[in-house]
Amino acid sequence: MELTSATAYLQIAAFFSDRNLVGMSAWMRAQASEERAHADRFFDFCPRSWQPGAHRGDTGAGGRIRRGRTGVRGRPGSGAGRDRGIHTLYRLASDFGDLASFPFLQAFIAEQNEEESTVQTILDRLRLASGDSGAIFLLDHELGARGDSEA
Ligand SMILES: [Fe+2]
Known about the structure:
Number of helices: 6
CATH class: Mainly Alpha
Structural class: mainly alpha
Bound molecules: fe (ii) ion
Oligomer: single chain
Number of domains: 1
Helix content: over 70%
CATH architecture: Up-down Bundle
Number of strands: 0
Radius of gyration: 18 Å
C-alpha cells in the first residue's frame, strides 16, 4: 500500500511537472519518497514481529497479512484506500492480540491523519484558486519550499 501511494504521488508529480508547476511537482516527489521510506519501515518491521509462530501461530495478523488475506480494499493510491488498509491492519493486530504491532501501526495511523489533513488543505486551496494563476503560482511556490527542504 505504501508503494502504491508512492507511485500515485509520482504520477501526480509528473502531471504538475508537465504543467511546469515545479513546486507542486517537488512536493509530490517528496511525498513519494516519504511513502517509499514507509514501505521500508514495513519491510524492516515485518520480519521481526510477523514471523510464522511469533504470535499465536501463523494464524495471527502477520500470517494473514503475508498471505494476502487481510480483506484490504481500496482504490490504489487513494487516501481512502490507504486509510482502510492501515485501519484493517490495526484491527487484525487487535483481533489476534498482536500487541507488539500496536505502536508501529499507531504511528502510521497518526501519520496518515496528518497527511490527509495536509492534502485536504492543499485541495481546498486549489479549489479556492480556481484558475487564478497568481494564487496557483503562490501555492506552487509554497509547496516547492517543502520539496526543497526535504529533498
Ligand atoms: Fe505512508
